């Protein structure tokens, strides 16, 4: 780990090799609550991955992070655990919004949340393009805690679905930010950022750092910790 010199745009910068092992680190020792540690054990998540290990100490304490890590590094659990753990303290509808670029990725994220949420009556909804907006409006009227979706369709419902708003939103997750921006979702995301509360926590995950990702970081994160996991260090 490297403590960053003052003058950086980041509160702290951490660069770590994904193969570096820290034997004694567990979900419990990172501050994950008992219910979620049990859920992890049940799902055979025995040891945190590098990105989970390096980010959870910050995300559980409601710091904004930008995390750069490759596909398959376990980013979903890295954001699902702190979102659910904070929700457990103060359950409320429309608590968290997760933006991801494709229907398939959104479905996978929802599966993670649902698997972790067994036994704590966590309600999640997937809102993606290509599916019936009326059925989605009905799903939203049931006041889910976690909404996972593609930016275009989320924005559509913010603008057109009565009774649906994010006035109480506490967490925004931007998943696969580089892909979101390459798929021309930038305008939709910026409109969403204009509508949702400024007082919230934001986690930005990306495989790569690009100019567009950096611009999105500046538009969406407050005093972020930057965590970079790769095999090149
Ligand atoms: P990414 O979003 O970084 O591409 P995912 O979150 O989809 O990665 O995770 C990749 C795979 O690793 C998934 O099948 C997930 O269930 C599994 N996984 C995540 N964290 C752990 C862990 N701590 N221990 C074991 N498997 C894990
Ligand atoms: Mg992912």
From TrEMBL:
Residues annotated as domain Helicase ATP-binding: 56-227
One MF annotation (Gene Ontology) recorded for this entry: RNA binding
GO cellular component, one term: nucleus
Family per similarity comment: Belongs to the DEAD box helicase family. DDX47/RRP3 subfamily.
Main location: nucleus
Keyword hit for Glycoprotein: no
Key words of the record: ATP-binding, Helicase, Hydrolase, Nucleotide-binding, Nucleus, RNA-binding
Positions of short motif Q motif: 25-53
Protein name per the record: DEAD/DEAH-box helicase
Shown residues within the full chain: 72 to 304 of 533
Residue span(s) of domain DEAD-box RNA helicase Q: 25-53
Keyword Transcription regulation on entry: no
Location of the protein in the cell: Nucleus
């Amino acid at each position: 780990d490297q403590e960053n010199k003052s003058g950086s745009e980041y509160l702290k910068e951490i660069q770590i090799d994904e193969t570096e092992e820290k034997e004694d680190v567990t979900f419990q020792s990172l501050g994950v609550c008992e219910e979620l540690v049990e859920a992890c054990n049940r799902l055979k998540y025995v040891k945190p991955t590098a990105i989970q290990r390096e980010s959870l100490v910050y995300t559980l304490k409601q710091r904004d992070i930008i995390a750069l890590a490759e596909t398959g590094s376990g980013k979903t659990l890295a954001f699902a655990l702190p979102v659910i753990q904070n929700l457990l303290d103060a359950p409320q509808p429309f608590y968290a919004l997760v933006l991801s670029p494709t229907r398939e990725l959104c479905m996978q994220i929802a599966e993670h949340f649902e698997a972790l949420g067994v036994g704590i009556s966590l309600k999640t909804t997937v809102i993606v393009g290509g599916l019936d907006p009326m059925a989605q409006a009905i799903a939203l009227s049931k006041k889910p805690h976690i909404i996972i979706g593609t930016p275009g369709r989320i924005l559509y419902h913010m603008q057109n679905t009565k009774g649906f708003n994010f006035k109480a939103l506490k967490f925004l997750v931007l998943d696969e930010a580089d892909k979101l921006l390459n798929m021309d979702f930038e305008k939709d995301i910026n409109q969403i950022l204009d509508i949702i509360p400024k007082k919230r926590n934001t986690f930005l995950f990306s495989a790569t750092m690009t100019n567009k990702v950096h611009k999105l970081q500046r538009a969406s994160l407050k005093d972020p910790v930057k965590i970079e996991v790769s095999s090149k260090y």
